[in-house]
Amino acid sequence: MAEITSHAARRSVAPNEPQAHNKARSERPADYPERFHVPDHLVKWRSPYPEYAPPRYEAPSTLEKSPDPTRFSDVARVLASYEPGCIRIDGATGEPLNPRGRTGISGRGGLYLWGPNHAADLLLTRFNTTTQSLEALLIQRKSGQWAIPGGMIDPGESASRAAMRELKEEAGISATTSVKTRELYRGYVDDPRNTDNAWMETVVFHEHLGDADPLLKTTPTAGSDARAAQWIPLSRDLIEGLYASHSAFVKIGLEELLVTPGTNAQTRAMVGDLLELSPRT
Ligand code: RP5
After folding, report:
1. Mean pLDDT of the 167-187 span
2. Is 120-185+204-274 CATH 3.90.79.10?
């Protein structure tokens, strides 16, 4: 299996310009308690919120399988974030603080690691010449939401290898050729599992496949924990409904397509429509 080649066209969120998170304070997996209400103006830790009393939650699977100790004070490893300088420790509890602010739940929730939990994602797009539509390879998560293929990075594994492994496990596609993939994004994910003390970060790669790409010879087959895997025509509604921050990742990928030499005129027009851009002259 070929290693993904990263290019410089990478985006990350500067740690001194954090964006708000929304799903991490409004959505939750079925087993999570209800989140303590965090209004927009009280998301940032620096905004005083004396009434803030989030429920503490650690899923049974986290307590059973996490390689981290139950108490953060017993953690020996150094926390590493994809957003340098963003690890802050709460002076009161001694636990790491979510860099985007309050989530309405403390503890690790369903995430195994204190602080950042690292994933890798792979956005594959193509122009379908038969249906004349711009498509993305998507998987349907257990929750029913559509997402780009991706998953947790194993210990010692590179992000690019993890992305290729997840493509195989979730969509049944083996990239056996030299895939030239762009690294689109590296940083925080607005994931419904995030808590005040544990959160998702990811590296997202993107490849726009040409008509003759060997990867197109394989029909996607759902595997691992995916309910379905298929090429789906992109629409604004589909993009907006994607899991966690995947909508933002797809939009970044589409923006990159506009500035990529060789992108055909039909694809450019479709991307412009999806991103609601004015026609280019
Ligand atoms: C998201 O969760 C990441 O972007 C990635 O797609 C996914 C990884 O979690 P699992 O699919 O392994 O649960 O935050």
Report:
1. 82
2. yes
